[in-house]
Write a structure and sequence with these properties.
The chain is α/β, with parallel strands linked by helices. The chain folds into three domains: 88 residues, 3-Layer(aba) Sandwich (Rossmann fold); 209 residues, UDP-N-acetylmuramoyl-L-alanine:D-glutamate ligase; 132 residues, Mur ligase, C-terminal domain (Protein-Tyrosine Phosphatase, Chain A), CATH 3.90.190. 35% of the residues lie in helices and 23% in strands. The chain is built from 17 helices and 20 strands. The protein has a nine-stranded mixed beta sheet, with helices on one face. The protein has a six-stranded mixed beta sheet with strand order 15-16-20-17-18-19, with helices on both faces. Helix 6 crosses helix 11 and helix 16 packs across helix 17.
């Protein structure tokens, strides 16, 4: 049986390794250049591969195709394969077919990386044999091929969910849903929403769906669609009989007759959104019978995700915070909402059709100066130019950090939270965040 893997990155190479273990004939093809590290792995495993081209004659012979999440279903090669009746699936789907481990799947527009890391941290501290994979860290497929684990905590993007058929996590989390990646969904928000909810489509009454009760998009979808899984909501606005809620600065979780409480004052992560992330992760830990003391200790000592409200340095009593992972307006909303000091805000990049007006109340309340970082800052200047006293344009991280230092006073914070993609000036959001940290350390 010929399995073709499209894409030679972490996901594709992991899929090829798993396929090799299970006796497939494999051909891996990448239209771009495969990194030397991955080429060496493919050679070591004796896997046929090509890069910088797709040889259609070989690819169209496939019995099954595993494609990189970066390749859209509308790509001509994918269209041809589907017309021929060849199944095209994601790595998440493929790997799930070869493990009996319990799967915890986490998706959402924002917060999924932190929630995934926090859930993994709680389960690891509880002594479970757990691996973290998916859209974060190592390839899920390679972990299934090479490790014997009882649990997997998976961060799953909408692109990965588009390629599932039978994938069914025992516990699914939807952190929130706001407009993002609409260019992949015909610019229809409802298509993106439907993609996110594919995470629960194969769940049964024995499974659980944990979700943000306060999110109007999620609430409307659940009202209009039938879900088989048992629902466990979390809320910071309403007291809930089942699930997690906030009361008197305490997280309260109730599942059947089991209860858990913890003060939010001792959470390692700050901000309302991180209270929600903690609720979601703690609900999973409660379901899996992790000791309450372990949950509390783990929430108190957790180190957050890199590039997500990452505290870099405090220089002359000015805090420098790296939130480069905030590639959309909603993520930046959370960042600004968590600020408790006057803020110099570094914003901008490759605009995704952003509507910045939702940030206006927070900008009025918290932002003392705006440093634009990008090739095209017109929309940011138009929106906030009359709201803040100081707004300036820069086209390099060195200039952005230098200007921010000049404007900031003791007691202030400098926040890199771009609300935009990074590809105008940087390789990706990690590169953008790394450059920010490097320039801050040079101050």
């Amino acid at each position: 049986m010929l399995l073709v893997v499209l894409g030679g990155g972490e996901s594709g190479v992991g899929s090829a390794i798993l396929a090799k273990k299970h006796g497939f004939d494999i051909f891996l093809s990448d239209k771009g250049k495969i990194k030397d590290h991955y080429k060496n792995v493919l050679v070591d495993f004796g896997i046929n591969w090509e890069d910088e081209k797709h040889t259609e004659a070989d690819i169209l012979k496939a019995d099954l195709v595993v494609k990189s999440p970066g390749i859209p279903d509308s790509a001509p090669l994918i269209v041809k394969l589907l017309e021929l009746g060849v199944p095209v699936i994601s790595e998440i789907e493929f790997a799930s077919r070869y493990t009996d481990a319990m799967l915890i799947g986490i998706t959402g527009s924002n917060g999924k990386t932190t929630t995934t890391m926090l859930t993994n941290h709680l389960l690891s501290a509880g002594g479970l044999k757990v691996g973290m994979a998916g859209n974060i860290g190592d390839s899920f497929a390679q972990m299934v091929a090479q490790r014997d684990l009882d649990y997997y905590v998976l961060e799953i993007s909408s692109f990965q969910l588009d390629g599932i058929e039978d994938f069914a996590p025992h516990i699914a989390i939807v952190t929130n849903i706001t407009p993002d990646h609409l260019d992949r969904y015909d610019y229809k928000f409802e298509n993106y929403i439907a993609s996110k909810f594919r995470i629960t489509m194969n769940q049964t009454e024995e499974d659980y769906l944990i979700y943000d009760y306060d999110d109007p998009v999620i609430a409307e979808w659940l009202q209009n669609n039938k879900i088989h899984a048992r629902l466990l909501p979390f809320s910071i606005e309403k007291k809930l009989e089942q699930g997690a809620y906030l009361e008197d600065n305490k997280i309260v979780i109730t599942i059947d007759k089991h209860h858990f409480q913890m003060s939010t004052d001792t959470l390692a992560l700050e901000g309302k959104h991180n209270v929600k992330n903690a609720m979601a992760a703690s609900t999973v830990a409660q379901l899996l019978k992790i000791r309450k003391a372990t949950i509390r200790e783990s929430l108190e000592n957790f180190q957050g995700a890199e590039h997500r409200l990452e505290k870099v340095l405090k220089i002359q009593n000015v805090h420098y915070i790296n939130d480069s992972k905030a590639t959309n307006v909603n993520a930046t909303y959370y960042a600004l909402d968590s600020m408790s000091t006057p803020t110099v805000w570094i914003v901008g990049g490759q605009d995704k059709g952003n509507d910045y007006l939702t940030l206006m109340p927070l900008v009025r309340e918290k932002v003392k100066a705006i440093v634009c970082l990008g090739w095209d800052n017109a929309k940011i200047i138009e929106t906030f130019g009359s709201v803040v006293e100081f707004i300036v344009e820069t086209t390099s991280m060195e200039d952005a950090v230098r200007v921010s230092k000049e404007v900031a006073q003791p007691g202030d914070s400098v926040l890199l939270s771009p609300a935009c993609a990074s590809f105008d000036l940087f390789l990706n959001y990690q590169d953008r965040g790394d450059q920010f940290k490097e320039q801050v350390r040079k101050l």
